[in-house]
Amino acid sequence: QIDDLAEVDYSLSGLPAVFQPFIDLDLKGIVFPAGNHTDSPYVAASFTIPDQSDSMLYLAFSEYFFQTSSFAYYTTGAFNMTIAEETCSYFNINTEIFSSIIPEVAKYSVTPYPVMLKLMSTEIPTISLQQDSFTVEIQGSVEVLAILPDSTTQSLFTLNIAANTSISLNIFDQKLMSSLCLNR
Known about the structure:
Blueprint: E1 6-12, E2 17-18, E3 23-24, E4 27-33, H1 63-75, E5 81-83, H2 85-90, H3 95-101, E6 115-121, E7 126-129, E8 134-147, E9 153-172, E10 175-182
Antiparallel strand pairs: 1-4, 2-3, 5-6, 6-8, 7-8, 8-9, 9-10
């Protein structure tokens, strides 16, 4: 069990290879939605780790591991969230702000109302690995809702989003650091 949403199966995918200086264990890491070991829509591809012998332990994660993780969390709805009125009021986000950007919003309210944001992933996020980074492609939508005085909500507009980001990991001063770049 990873958390309440996902589980991982890390069974051996073959017999261990025992050599004089090392043991090679191939584990097949598949992430599933918690309590639902369904087949993944992805196919695992084999890969090799470059021969090196200057460290005691080497770990490698395949693209397949990240793809099944993305699938499991998407299936459980982990990428869908609501940013509530309390958070929006902390940042002072209300209908008046959106009215200055999108004049049609002004039709719904003369008085500034607090807003709520619903973020939804519309497709399974795609993760691909490169030599020195990995790319995450996310498609989703953001629905902006006005919270009316009677506690009902009125949908103001929905934005469809397609984002492509690259993430690079580096070790600096014995700490794992990441850098994030929004490609588009």
